[in-house]
Design goal:
It comes from Idiomarina rhizosphaerae. Belongs to the RuvC family. This is Crossover junction endodeoxyribonuclease RuvC. One of its GO terms (cellular component) is cytoplasm. By secondary structure, the chain is α/β, with parallel strands linked by helices. It has five helices and seven strands, in the order E-E-E-H-E-H-E-H-H-H-E-E. Helix 1 packs parallel to helix 2, helix 3 packs across helix 5 and helix 4 crosses helix 5. The longest helix is centred in the last third of the chain and has 28 residues. The protein is globular.
Amino acid sequence: MAIILGIDPGSRLTGYGVIEQRGRQLNYLGSGCIKVIGTTKEPLTLAEKLRRIHDSVSELITQFKPDEFAIEQVFMAKNPDSALKLGQARGAAIVAAACAELPVAEYSARQIKQSVVGNGGAEKSQVQHMVMALLNLQRCPQEDAADALAVALCHAHSSQNLIKMAGAARKTVRGRLR
């Protein structure tokens, strides 16, 4: 059994999703969004946003006690400033996981979509639909939360494949089946 915390980082909204993996069975434990926006009268500084992400992820780790942590890699957006902010948000979340001594796995958006939908170029609505189906959810999670659950599902699928490969490797000697 493993509890996996998936994170979809963002400089305004950071999605999180928590699942439990028992062999091939995957169970939904929770999901939501960390809002890192201030008010129009008092906007948050970048440092305050990063602290809020770090503190919120730390609280999630305390609440759910995950065994593993997975996060989406930075993709190069059209705007380099946005990519930089996204990277900083990722860093704040990763530091929270590192402080809790969790192993950190990183996946590209293409890997996540391929793992969950079967198509690396899938639309967000397709990801949401498959997250609902795979976790047997009654309603569609918010977009950023669904993306974070997809990160956790991708990690679960990746670890299942590694277990299969390790089992197959044990059954072979010099590339031949025993």
